[in-house]
Specification:
Elements lengths: L5 E4 L6 E3 L3 H12 L7 H7 L9 H15 L7 H11 L5 E3 L3 H11 L2 E5 L3 H10 L8 E4 L10 H11 L6 E5 L2 H10 L3 E4 L14 E2 L6 H12 L2
Parallel strand pairs: 1-4, 1-6, 4-5, 6-7, 7-8
Antiparallel strand pairs: 2-3
Helix pairs in contact: 1-4, 2-3, 3-4
């Protein structure tokens, strides 16, 4: 196996998850426009197409509201206002570590340099970082949403490696997205660990590791240390 000198984590879905009830978000969208609620939050998620655009989350959600409105026979749904209402209801500080993430973070910290690379802008992601006290537990937090290029472009991955002072090939990126995390890490020469929230097909991607939980990182780091021992 390749030696791992540093670990970089994705944030949303990998290190942390929202603790805010999804139903609260959905209800907040309709309250914002004083419109009787139709459908349910799980139907909205199902109506969304692929992963969100970190630069324009409102338009992404609005498209889902339009699709859902059409499914319920509604015309001229105020989709942009519904999306804005939902986003205004989000409490960015209402997050908690994903099961196994705290232990993975401790193991990574004991092993070597640690970073966080998230695709969101600091305005949206920093409250989560502060709520989890991550700044005190990692060497750097990089907000790709504030950069000209975001994941899966190689630039944010190369930037975080340069900040940590580690070579890309000796850096392991842990994330829950194949298209953004695995593809982006491999494009920049990093190793990749795919840690989905639900088991699934790797869709032809070939991450070095597939984790059931962030805690699976602990064994990888232990094996990396053993492989370097004379």
């Amino acid at each position: 196996m390749q030696h791992v000198e540093a670990v970089v984590f994705d944030l949303d879905g990998t290190l942390c998850e929202s603790t805010q009830a999804e139903e609260t978000l959905y209800a907040g969208a309709f309250e914002a426009v004083d419109l009787p609620q139709f459908g349910a939050v799980d139907e909205l998620w199902a109506a969304l197409d692929g992963p969100p655009d970190p630069e324009d989350e409102q338009s992404y959600l609005a498209a889902g509201f339009r699709r859902l409105g059409a499914q319920y026979g509604h015309r001229q749904v105020p989709a942009d206002e519904l999306a804005a209402g939902l986003l205004d209801t989000v409490d960015r500080r209402a997050v908690a570590f994903r099961d196994g993430a705290d232990g993975a973070l401790r193991a990574a910290r004991a092993h070597g340099p640690v970073g966080v690379l998230t695709n969101g802008p600091a305005s949206r992601q920093r409250p989560k970082v502060e709520s989890l006290a991550l700044a005190d537990r990692v060497d750097t937090v990089r907000y790709a949403g504030d950069r000209p290029r975001r994941k899966p472009h190689p630039e944010p991955f190369i930037d975080v490696c340069e900040t940590l002072g580690t070579a890309p090939e000796a850096t392991l990126y842990v994330g829950d997205s194949l298209a953004y995390d695995v593809a982006g890490a491999h494009g920049a020469g990093l190793q990749a660990a795919w840690c989905p929230r639900e088991p699934g097909d790797s869709e032809g991607y070939r991450p070095e590791y597939v984790f059931d939980s962030p805690a699976d990182l602990i064994e990888v780091l232990e094996r990396s240390d053993e492989a370097r021992q004379p």
